[in-house]
Amino acid sequence: MDNKYDILIIGGGPIGLTCGIEAQAAGLSYVIIEKGCMVNSLYNYPSNMTFFSTSDKLEIGGVPFVSNNIKPTRSEALEYYRRVADKFDLNLNLFEKVESVDKKSDEYLVHTNKADYQVKNIIVSTGFYDIPNKLNIPGEDLPKVKHYYKDPHFYAKQKVLVVGANNSSVDAALETYRKGAEVSMVIRESEIGERVKYWVRPDIINRIKEGSIKAYFNSSLSAINEHEAEIIGPEGKITIANDFVLAMTGYQPDFSFLRKIGIRISTDEKQAPEHDPITMETNMKGIYLAGVVCGGMNTHIWFIENSRVHAEIIINKIIAEE
């Protein structure tokens, strides 16, 4: 087989790219397989998004990340990671999806929609942005319901109902409001989330206080119809007219894929993939986890800035066993 490598990395996000850089530096053969475009999750972030982190904390491979402001934008991040991939001439296969992983003696046979690979080790760095957390209510599958928010102009002059009170929800509410949408928010808690970016939180609180954005606190969405939505709150059930529902309810790793390749998942609500936090190796020998996927449903543990080290840990482990 021509496609034989020491390491196959699943996921071409910042941490997957970092794993490729570390493997390259260690003289190991590798290939990065990404089912979408480069840093696909970042590409699907809202067009006007500004990162919570400063640019230096998003750096990989020792390449400086210079941005116009201390906190970079989505477009700056896409440019940066594209340049990093070019600088290291990473072996990166885009728009290729891993379909199966089979154990073959002391190696793995990986089948994608484009090729087969025989590899000694696998690093899973697939993130969590591909599968939205569903509301599981009637009408959720209507075309008016969006689990991803891209650009506010689309919602100008429309009645928009935003579900949630964390960063993605708040950004969507404020941006669509400022483009002329009539915005309401449905929030399970009694206040805006404390994790909301500190320079944005006062803005949304003030817009709600002045009545520019209507917020239904301690409430949940119970059903969605073609032109209306039903909300259950402290005053019982109410129905409001709306054109679009932005269900910013968070996302989760692809647990079915992890189970399919043999990784055990905890049975509690965290659904954490089993792995050794010292080596990042899973219950499957030679298969490692890197990045946010390590946290399961607890997606607020790992970020680019604190999981970059996973790449070095994994490569050192692989070298030690060579």
Helices and strands, with pairings:
Layout: E1 4-10, H1 14-25, E2 30-33, H2 40-43, H3 74-88, E3 92-93, E4 98-104, E5 107-112, E6 116-124, E7 131-132, E8 145-146, E9 159-163, H4 167-178, E10 182-186, H5 201-209, E11 214-216, E12 220-224, E13 228-233, E14 236-241, E15 244-247, E16 251-252, H6 255-260, E17 287-289, H7 304-307, H8 309-320
Parallel strand pairs: 1-2, 1-6, 2-3, 6-17, 8-15, 9-10, 9-15, 10-11
Antiparallel strand pairs: 4-5, 5-6, 7-16, 12-13, 13-14
Measured on Cα atoms, how large is the radius of gyration?
21 Å
From the helix content, strand content and strand pairing, which structural class follows?
alpha/beta
Shape: elongated
Strand composition percent: 15-25%
Superfamily at the CATH H level of the largest domain? FAD/NAD(P)-binding domain
Largest sheet: 7 strands, mixed
Distance N terminus to C terminus? 21 Å
How many individual β-strands?
17
What is the H-and-E element order? Answer: EHEHHEEEEEEEHEHEEEEEEHEHH
Please report the number of helical segments: 8
Query: Unreliable stretches, pLDDT < 50, 5 or more residues?
Result: none
Mean pLDDT: 95
CATH top level class name of the largest domain: Alpha Beta
Give the fraction of residues assigned to helices: 10-25%
How many separate domains?
2
State the CATH topology of the largest domain: FAD/NAD(P)-binding domain
